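The methods section describes the discrete structure representation at length, but only in general terms. An entry of this sort, consisting of the sequence and the corresponding backbone structure tokens, reads as follows:
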Amino acid sequence: MRPAALAGLARAVEAVGPGRACGDRLLLPARPDPRGWREAVAAAAGALQAGGLVALPTDTVYGVACLAQDSAAVRSIYSLKGRNGGKPLAICLGDVERLYRYCQVNVPDELLRDLLPGPVTLVLKRSEELNKDLNPFTSLVGVRIPNHPFVRELARACSGPLALTSANISCQASTLTVSEFQDLWPQLSLIIDGGPIGDVQSPECRLGSTVVDLSVSGKFTIIRPGCALTSTVEILKQKYGLIPESA
């Protein structure tokens, strides 16, 4: 992670509460020391536990997260983005080990660890542990473990998975700074400012994660090319011999 982004990671703006207009703002300390990180993680975890929506940086673009097991919070994310109710949300975890609780895994553990953490969303069959109100129209779920220390620490601090989507109105461009989604601030409980993500002038930096379906044994399907297509396909085909299929 870039030093400038690290130094700014703990800057956060707190709204009055989930779903309410932005009022008094709390600026968390902009320090890269352990105490500053703990304060930022604790503030974000507290907002999530209260049913709120938290904006945060990932390894690709800025995202909005809530607790995946909180059905009301999941509905709030769809409302925030104006998102089609038939479009699924991914879950976000801190470590590969936790993936087995929420997914039925039919690929080698080594494959998971070759791709995660990283800018890839793996689509797998969901387990019964996952909230039935999250993507009730599909038996699959996308899983993200971003290669970003703050997001991973936050996911570890929560009892269940996060639901994660990009911090933008649906069908608009992904965002690389917190100012780019300022219109959403009044509906957010907390905004974690990690500084610019990548080159804000580069369209390639707004591609988001590569989404790949691994739910069928021995095969893979690219659902969204994203920013890590070449390296992902190379690993799946050359190292594990998986056969590509058309989406």
